[in-house]
């Protein structure tokens, strides 16, 4: 076993270097303060604060430096003396390996394929959990059995992650396995601490560290929710949580340290310092500290794919803990063949940080600059508010409150909007009743479109007829294009909706052109006995109310007369349909 002097040198050197680096960072600037406290290159600071850190973040970094220094002092305590049997010795080595993995080894391992990382982590904790069951004196068969069951669930979750990395069939969907793995991890820690208490060889301080790690794990969820709600405070909370999260490593190291012979407790070594050993420790630890970087894939309670990214729930239907995951889905999505918003090289935490910066961007140009800095293949695009609402609802909701709704609220609001739009439309011929008739608001595309169709949707050639009608409308600069079983009616004004009334008669009504700006009559044919106007039917374009069948005489030829006027109430159309063999186009009023 390594001597007490060696451990003393490592402890003093590590803690001294962390504190000295933090002080140096204050002098050299924000980027170097970040590097000193978060153990990452100065360039990483630019991911989170382009214009420098605010006061809360600077204070948080200084506090985190003290917390990390204190935890390193506890982690690097001298192992308790005394003989160990083969199992206890193996457990001690594996626990120290797990602590080293968390602090240092994860960085070189992260350079390997993700499947290798997952396999190493699974193998390490499989061995540790088995040795826990063999080494800890549980003093209860029920407690040991419960611990074994929880360990098995925890390892099954890790196995699922490995299967996912290998593109093999998984044990279950990520949205189910992820929460189960989280709960199993908490339960495994709780049962292990209970076992340590019943065993009697572990000190009260070690047990407190174990319970504290459970508390930190539980606090991660509500504190993550504060990231998007505290102005300029999310990064400060993240820095502090990163430091406090080391308490689990303190517990692992303390568990390894206090594995001495029967009944012996590990005590801290005497506080004796020698200047030469401090210098040696600083030189020895410096290369190690330089290799340590912030975790690239933070252990969140969810990931970008755990909730099923192919389901797109409305903001109001998501629990607060699911909103970051929804944004990650959109940030990494490639729907429609478009490139993702952010490259795969960015971690979840970096993408979420960029999302919050995009929320605070003053204009589209600043958003494009941020995307370019992130290495986005969509740097020439801005970001839609319906994507950003998941990371900054308080910002987006101020200008787009409709994006905060649930699916039920959205449907109710949409129904109310359509009902209100329909209510403003009136029948322009209230005393002339048709055999079939309806009045409704007709919704066009947001940027305007060709207009609306009166057509036979069951005719196999209707699409070809509609294309010809479009061509006729543009070639003749006419308001109406007619071809076969399709009549396309354009609009006069640059509008997104208009009031439409349709009426079907058995014979041609009088022209009655007074009060109208244009009146045009064209032929149409119904091959199936159906003529109608498209309805919205859950979409964004179409009539806001059910439209009747205007081919009241069945299959055959019909005439369509279209009345158009523009007034204070907007653009208004009246479509009159009646049987007729004529194929002439008539302009009754221009």
Kindly summarize this structure in a few lines:
The protein has 590 residues and is α+β, with helices and mostly antiparallel strands.
Report on this model:
- This protein has 590 residues and is α+β, with helices and mostly antiparallel strands.
- Helices cover 50% and strands 11% of the residues.
- It has helices spanning 4-28, 30-38, 45-48, 55-75, 86-110, 114-135, 141-165, 174-199, 204-225, 234-244, 247-257, 275-291, 323-332, 348-360, 364-373, 385-388, 393-399, 407-423, 462-475; strands at 436-443, 452-455, 480-483, 486-489, 497-504, 518-526, 542-543, 556-567, 570-579, 586-589.
- The strands form 2 sheets. Strands 7-1-5-9-8-6-10 form a 7-stranded mixed β-sheet, covered by helices on one side.
- A hairpin with a 2-residue loop joins strand 8 (556-567) and strand 9.
- Helix 1 runs antiparallel to helix 2 and helix 4 packs parallel to helix 10.
- The termini are far apart.
- Keywords: Membrane, Transmembrane, Transmembrane helix.
